[in-house]
């Protein structure tokens, strides 16, 4: 916090959680600790990069005013995440009842003899906040992490990771491999039995076809012999 005679400014560093191609905003709070009307004006070394709302205004006696500074979306990240941009906040005591329309640049001109209070503000780039870690599904009731309150009233949180121990995964993998191996062996044995039964059926089929052929030949020869004998008997 910067504490001047007219305004207290918080914070004195503009911290932007830098992200490419995204507008980022941060706020300033101006506190008037006097019994007078105080006018302010915000300037920057890079006006095309930032938008300040309001960039001029009046802080009533014993009251506060919020100023929003928005950085335009950037296409490239700065080298080493360093920023040389700066802001200057000027404040001056004005007559009671002054309105926004009555604020002029001349009020903040030191050369004209006005008592202008100035505060320089730095710009810092910080890492954006990380999203919270996802909560694992299927956790049993009562096993979720709980907050414990210490003696001084601060909450201390503990996280359980037992559900993700590698021993459980390796045991499950060994069981699956054993089960797959057993199923494979059973399939091979069943395939061998089917092959043996198929060979046996083929052999029986060959035997049956061979026996039918011999029986047919015997019948044919007996018939041929009978016809021959009948023919010879007729000739005699």
From TrEMBL:
<dbReference type="GO" id="GO:0090158">
    <property type="term" value="P:endoplasmic reticulum membrane organization"/>
</dbReference>
<keyword id="KW-1133">Transmembrane helix</keyword>
<dbReference type="GO" id="GO:0005886">
    <property type="term" value="C:plasma membrane"/>
</dbReference>
<comment type="similarity">
    <text>Belongs to the VAMP-associated protein (VAP) (TC 9.B.17) family.</text>
</comment>
<dbReference type="InterPro" id="IPR000535">
    <property type="entry name" value="MSP_dom"/>
</dbReference>
<protein>
    <recommendedName>
        <fullName>MSP domain-containing protein</fullName>
    </recommendedName>
</protein>
<dbReference type="InterPro" id="IPR016763">
    <property type="entry name" value="VAP"/>
</dbReference>
<feature type="domain" description="MSP">
    <location>
        <begin position="6"/>
        <end position="126"/>
    </location>
</feature>
<keyword id="KW-0175">Coiled coil</keyword>
<keyword id="KW-0472">Membrane</keyword>
<feature type="region of interest" description="Disordered">
    <location>
        <begin position="127"/>
        <end position="153"/>
    </location>
</feature>
<dbReference type="GO" id="GO:0005789">
    <property type="term" value="C:endoplasmic reticulum membrane"/>
</dbReference>
<dbReference type="InterPro" id="IPR013783">
    <property type="entry name" value="Ig-like_fold"/>
</dbReference>
<feature type="coiled-coil region">
    <location>
        <begin position="177"/>
        <end position="204"/>
    </location>
</feature>
<dbReference type="GO" id="GO:0061817">
    <property type="term" value="P:endoplasmic reticulum-plasma membrane tethering"/>
</dbReference>
<keyword id="KW-0812">Transmembrane</keyword>
<feature type="transmembrane region" description="Helical">
    <location>
        <begin position="213"/>
        <end position="233"/>
    </location>
</feature>
<dbReference type="Pfam" id="PF00635">
    <property type="entry name" value="Motile_Sperm"/>
</dbReference>
<dbReference type="InterPro" id="IPR008962">
    <property type="entry name" value="PapD-like_sf"/>
</dbReference>
């Amino acid at each position: 916090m910067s504490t001047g005679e007219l305004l207290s400014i918080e914070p004195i560093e503009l911290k932007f959680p830098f992200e490419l191609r995204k507008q980022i905003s941060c706020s300033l709070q101006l506190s008037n600790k006097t019994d007078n009307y105080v006018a302010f004006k915000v300037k920057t070394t890079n006006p095309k990069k930032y938008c300040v709302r309001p960039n001029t205004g009046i802080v009533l006696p014993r009251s506060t005013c919020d100023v929003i500074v928005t950085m335009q979306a950037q296409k490239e990240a700065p080298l080493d995440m360093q920023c040389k941009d700066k802001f200057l906040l000027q404040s001056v005591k004005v007559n009671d009842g002054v309105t926004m329309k009555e604020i002029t640049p001349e009020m903040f001109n030191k050369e004209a003899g006005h008592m202008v209070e100035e505060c320089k503000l730095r710009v810092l780039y910080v890492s954006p906040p990380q999203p919270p870690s996802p909560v694992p599904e299927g956790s049993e009731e009562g096993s979720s992490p709980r907050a414990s309150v210490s003696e001084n009233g601060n909450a201390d949180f503990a996280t359980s990771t037992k559900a993700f121990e590698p021993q459980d995964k390796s045991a499950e993998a060994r069981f699956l491999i054993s089960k797959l191996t057993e199923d494979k062996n059973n399939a091979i044995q069943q395939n061998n039995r089917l092959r043996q039964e198929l060979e046996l059926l083929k052999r029986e089929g060959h035997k049956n076809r061979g026996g039918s052929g011999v029986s047919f030949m015997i019948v044919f020869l007996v018939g041929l012999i009978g016809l021959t004998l009948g023919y010879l008997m007729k000739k005699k």
